[in-house]
Amino acid sequence: MTGKQFGDPSLEEAYIYPPPGKWFKGFEEIERHFPSAEVFSIPILGEDMRRVDSGSLMSRINAAEFEGMAPGTVIFVGPQGSGGNPRAELLFVHRPEGWNTLFRPDTGRWEEVVHGETGQKLYASADFSPLAALKTQRKPHQEKIDHMKKLLAEGWMLTLPPDTTPIRNIPFTPPVKPGEGLKPPLDWEDIRKHLEEGGRINLQGPLGKNTA
């Protein structure tokens, strides 16, 4: 394996890892060098993107167990998303052999290596607990959906423009229109997807009060 390491120190016998945002394109080559490598992510809220300390944590490996994976086997690639979106992700790559190992053909094993002059390892480790603290189980637009559920229970209705069909209860079975087949029922996950795609929802109260 030839190339350069990302992060410090620079070495001549390590693979160059693609920068954040390009890992999709380069992952096949990573797998070619490291067949066991697997990409995974953890969900965070878009508003928490600003809390990701990318400068000190990107290109670092986990100093302690992280997401059930052994120390030294997970490297932080970086965040994906933006503060303007409700949902974002933190991207990682896991190698069970550890990121501070290289393959030795004479032994047929992945073995830990250090820089000959400095004794430094290929990749520095870091505390990933600040990243773990950002993990969320809350789905995007949940506040809006909870609010709509409350309004429907109070007799409001909603429409999904440009469709003007009134929806008073969810799940909702769309009426069959001439020339169209039966459509599957609409549930709250469909409403969430509509919002994620930038769709508009109009709400109308029992007395004709409108909101969007």
Explain what the structure shows:
This protein has five helices and ten strands, in the order H-E-H-E-E-E-E-E-E-H-H-E-H-E-E. With 212 residues, the chain is of the alpha+beta class. The strands form four sheets. A three-stranded antiparallel sheet has the order 1-4-3. 19% of the residues lie in helices and 20% in strands. A hairpin with a 5-residue loop joins strand 9 and strand 10. The longest helix has 12 residues. It is elongated.
What class do helices, strands and sheet pairing give? alpha+beta
Provide the residue-averaged pLDDT.
Answer: 82
For the biggest sheet, the summary is:
3 strands, antiparallel
* End-to-end Cα distance: 57 Å
- Number of extended strands: 10
The ordered string of helix (H) and strand (E) elements is HEHEEEEEEHHEHEE
Strands of the largest sheet, in order across it?
1-4-3
Radius of gyration: 24 Å
Helix fraction, binned, reads 10-25%
The proportion of strand residues reads: 15-25%
The coarse overall form would be elongated
Concise synopsis of the structure shown:
The chain has 212 residues and is of the alpha+beta class. It contains 5 helices and 10 strands.
Could you name the key traits of this structure?
212 residues, alpha+beta, three-stranded antiparallel β-sheet, 5 helices, 10 strands, 19% helix, elongated, disordered N terminus
Please render the helix and strand layout as text.
Layout: H1 23-33, E1 38-45, H2 54-57, E2 61-62, E3 74-80, E4 87-94, E5 101-104, E6 109-112, E7 125-126, H3 129-132, H4 142-153, E8 157-159, H5 188-196, E9 202-204, E10 210-211
Parallel strand pairs: 2-7
Antiparallel strand pairs: 1-4, 3-4, 5-6, 8-9, 9-10
